[in-house]
Amino acid sequence: xxxxxxxxxxxxxxxxxxxxxxxxxxxxxxxxxxxxxxxxxxxxxxxxxxxxxxxxxxxxxxxxxxxxxxxxxxxxxxxxxxxxxxxxxxxxxxxxxxxxxxxxxxxxxxxxxxxxxxxxxxxxxxxxxxxxxxxxxxxxxxxxxxxxxxxxxxxxxxxxxxxxxxxxxxxxxxxxxxxxxxxxxxxxxxxxxxxxxxxxxxxxxxxxxxxxxxxxxxxxxxxxxxxxxxxxxxxxxxxxxxxxxxxxxxxxxxxxxxxxxxxxxxxxxxxxxxxxxxxxxxxxxxxxxxxxxxxxxxxxxxxxxxxxxxxxxxxxxxxxxxxxxxxxxxxxxxxxxxxxx
Length: 341
What we know:
About 50% of the residues lie in helices and about 10% in strands. The chain is of the alpha/beta class. An eight-stranded mixed β-sheet has the order 3-4-2-5-1-6-7-8, sandwiched between helices. It has helices at about 20-35, 50-55, 55-65, 75-80, 110-125, 130-135, 140-150, 165-175, 185-210, 250-265, 270-280, 290-295, 315-340, and strands at about 5-10, 40, 95, 105, 155-160, 175-180, 230-235, 280-285. The chain has 13 helices and eight strands. It has one domain: P-loop containing nucleotide triphosphate hydrolases (Rossmann fold, 3-Layer(aba) Sandwich). The longest helix has 26 residues, at about 185-210.
């Protein structure tokens, strides 16, 4: 292992369309390229990350498989949901066919929505100090923790749905770090406030209930509730001018102060309080139609060969080269943060 312990990094924004899945996948590939053993975790019931990793053909075949192999995250927690058992530690991540030999996926499932539906009740049971509730709410946390030890994963990169629902509550109460992708628009700006305040509410409630009443409950059953905000990623600057799209300049200029007020001051610590809002971890340009082509090929943007993209697409070579630069810098910045905190 390159880290002293397995770490969990969650990509989250309660606003959709900010590029969470694309960013999570590309960051995972970049870490894997640099020798880290990485497992992608698809905790969005829409399964966009799983589709990106496996390709549409394999993903669709798995949906209608009459003899599933028992390798999705739903299979991990089915015993919890049916009240017939606990987590299934026999489930293994899928090794992705990739030039890096150390990139894996814990596949998502549309059935995770069933777990989401039940989690509000599970959380209430845990918040009252009942051990059953702790087991139910910590199921995914315990599985990932055990998997990290057994298979020596450096990093779990978690993709989430764009909601403030019960599943995302336990994900964010369990994660080590979270990063927020942001588009420079009015909706994203409002979303920063909603996310920061809601996460603060979740942390305070859990500290005063589930954690306060844990008593002799084993530590691995109690979500730690200390997710650290490490920064934001700014998406969508213009491909050709290399500047933020003109209409977005106004909103981009307002982001740092909003991030400071609702995320950095509430969910960061030490040096990250300032660094997490003063500058984005990275700026990633709008790559137009290229991400859709990447999904067809199950490749990162910076892995594309120019022959794999339509010659009619203006700026293809420049975009691929730019992606290599942008995601390398994003990797360097995230690596530095994860090493320090």
